[in-house]
Specification:
This protein has helices spanning 3-13, 19-40, 54-69, 71-94, 97-123, 128-131, 139-150, 155-171; strands at 44-47, 50-53. The protein is mostly helical and 179 residues long. It has one domain. Helix 1 (3-13) packs parallel to helix 8, helix 2 (19-40) packs antiparallel against helix 5 (97-123) and helix 3 runs antiparallel to helix 4 (71-94). The two termini are 33 Å apart.
């Protein structure tokens, strides 16, 4: 893991200690991504003879960024993004333009609500991107890192991310012991 990613995750985890907030982030980030790419899926584009849509084209730079941050995490995010891009393209090809925009707005509002509720109710502090706007791009990395850790992969990430979780449990009345 790069020193840059280690620093970014160390800072990001300070804003994401509560497990409920983290769960809301999983839902919120996925719905925000789908909501953002859905209307872009309405515009087909041919690139080097390959038919794609504007959503795919605009997602590529951030997917490359995530892969450059951490190859396994970035590739896993790219896999999920591919499913969401396919979902967006499928919805866009079967729904009218007003319906696509309506779904997109609902998804974005729902995703933002999940983020706000997670931070205000469970973390009792402003979202990380208020203090550090690049954190907007770190959310998917954090969520995927937590998924990797839950499957027993990436002890290097667990050392950073679970440290914040242990602190949170201690501040809420003690660390729960395994029974």
């Amino acid at each position: 893991m790069s020193a840059f990613l280690r620093r970014q995750l160390t800072d990001y985890v300070e804003y994401h200690r509560d497990p409920t907030n983290c769960a809301l982030h999983v839902v919120g980030i996925v719905t925000l991504f789908l909501g953002a790419i859905l209307p872009l899926s309405l515009w087909p584009i041919t690139v080097f003879g390959l038919q794609v849509n504007l959503g795919v084209l605009l997602a590529l730079p951030v997917l490359i960024y995530w892969i450059l941050l951490d190859i396994p995490i970035g590739l896993a995010i790219a896999g999920v993004a591919a499913l969401l891009l396919f979902t967006g393209a499928t919805i866009a090809s079967h729904a009218s333009v007003p319906i696509v925009w309506t779904i997109s707005i609902v998804l974005i509002l729902f995703g933002i609500t999940m983020q706000i509720v997670g931070h205000q109710v469970f973390e009792r502090r402003a979202p990380a991107l208020i203090d550090n706007p690049p954190h907007l791009l770190l959310g998917p990395v954090f969520v995927m890192a937590k998924l990797f850790i839950s499957f027993g992969f990436r002890d290097d990430l667990a050392a950073i991310i679970q440290k914040g979780s242990v602190y949170s449990q201690q501040s809420q009345g003690g660390v729960q012991q395994d029974r």
